[in-house]
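Exercise (ungraded).
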Amino acid sequence: MATIQIFDPALCCSTGVCGVEVDQALVSFAADVDWAKQNGAQLERFNLAGQPLAFAENATVKAFLERSGQEALPLILVDGEVALAGRYPNRTELARWAGIATANATQPQGGCCSGSRCC
Amino acid sequence: MQFLNQPPRYLFFTGKGGVGKTSIACATAVQLASEGKRVLLVSTDPASNVGQVFGESIGNHITAIPAVPKLWALEIDPQAAAQAYRDRIVGPVRGVLPESVVKGIEEQLSGACTTEIAAFDEFTALLIDSTLTADFEHIIFDTAPTGHTIRLLQLPGAWSGFLEEGKGDASCLGPLAGLEKQRTQYKSAVDALADPQRTRLILVARAQRTTLREVARTHEELAAIGLSQQYLVVNGVLPASEAAHDELAAAIHQREQGALMAMPDVLQALPRDQIDLKPFNLVGLDALRHLLVATTSGSAASSIELPAELDAPSLSSLVDDIAVDGHGLVMLMGKGGVGKTTLAAAVAVELAQRGLPVHLTTSDPAAHLSETLEGSLPNLTVSRIDPHTETERYRQHVLDTKGAQLDAEGRALLEEDLRSPCTEEIAVFQAFSRIIREAGKKFVIMDTAPTGHTLLLLDATGAYHREVTRQMGNTGLHYTTPMMQLQDPKQTKVLIATLAETTPVLEAANLQSDLRRAGIEPWAWIVNNSVTAARPDSLLLRQRAFNELKEIDSVATHHAKRFAVVPLLKNEPVGVDRLRHLAHHLTEEA
């Protein structure tokens, strides 16, 4: 099964808990991640503020940061190759990468606060 | 002293900066050591004078104090702990990732939460049974963790998959990601705190209404999470005998007694000790030995020489310079209790009396100040931002939208995140940005402002830019970005408010460096409630005035580009006339 890696930006306060507005994209994505994991997807998230080393040690991510800057995050790699950048994937995209039959796509649930960012 | 009766192993002193926690903690340590107990004193005071007091350089390791048998001390510098933590995370990628990215991460880890959690991490080792502390019968801390930190550590949701897997998604616990200890260690530390057999919390306050209200909130918050054994110490109370000596002393005495009478019920119920204002400076072992003893010892000097006239600018002379531009934003910043609201009102009244259009916005919880000023001067308008209302509205909004689909654990975590100090700042910031657009045409005076850290984070996300652009609309202000408006002293003047005491001055200096990080240079400092400027006769007050001189000098020579000193008044500065007294160094008529 494909491995999906999500490299999140470091900006905690845009999650909405601390931010000026609640970022619905992050809320939905957190729920989608939860769903994908429950359906067996191999998925990892890295927070720039907490795990910068993960960014530095991956040549693709490091080059991306140098070229486009942290504003261009998030970056999503599937099996080490760039699959998406600048926005979070939707449930259909996650399902395609992970090989989950989309008929299973049920209501989102769980872990909203998982913006993987700090406060 | 009741709080010294059969003390448990851990004693925590808590209260806002400048109330005398460290002095009382030192005196307690000396007292217990003199009873033959083996005592460890832990200071986290950034202005730590513990080393000075004992004539010993201490630092971040347990050090014996030769002058006091059976006493050891340890200094934890929370800023250094936070810095060490940042270095651990950022160090390996410095020079590897682009410079802007590294700076972004560092800012992320520069908030109050990081400092607090890093300091708590240092505590943990002392609160769990270990060989390190096994020999000590008492461990005394001159600070206590906040309710927010403790509650976060108690929430199971905060831990799931975070510390254990080293990755994941807790929010306010983000700063804990790089900490080394395990959940079980944090848990036993929190358990020790919540165990009345082992831990006693001593709330330290001054006899002031606002301070006591704040202490009541701390009491309830910490009691709710199990720190049920609490004592109250009211420090620095002016003795009745002084009231006979001069009118200012009499007025202060009356005000303090009034505050004690009106103390919130939850505090009335606690065992309480009172420590009189001492005629001596709390430096040296001898002074500490006398602090906790009710004494009328005549160790005070018989007279204290004070300069006949305080050589410091008045608030009114600062306002002259502010008035020149005819409009602009003036923000009073400083820790709670230094009198930001009063000073903002005094600046507003001064400007309005010069015939300039002024909008004063306060977060004054009692609202009496805004009420007395509204309508008192033709070109002065007054409005109010209630931080609690704003925060509540914001919390509810986030819970309704973001929290709608959460399970119980996720919701508990989100609710705790929404109790973080950042939340109130952000909520108030929203209200704030609604008002600053007026600053292009008139003066806008505010007694509240976001910190440099908040501004940087919001600026980095672009959220701040979007928010303010939306709020400002097409007002014809000449600015490139809103952040630049705040950075331009022509458009925005930041006044830092402080008191002429060691810890408040240090806290103000920290605030200043936080603002400088955001490229905002404070325009002036205001030293409020100065006894020196009030020219007292009472010997006790003259001693206090004498101690102030050193602090005023350090503000004038080290910290501030410009400054002003505002006297302590006999009566609460409410209404136009009394506010004018503040600005002009006037002594009041009876």
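Further reading is listed at the end of the chapter. For now, observe: Chain A touches chain B through 46 residues (CB under 8 Å). Strands of chain A lie at 3-8, 42-47, 75-78, 81-85.
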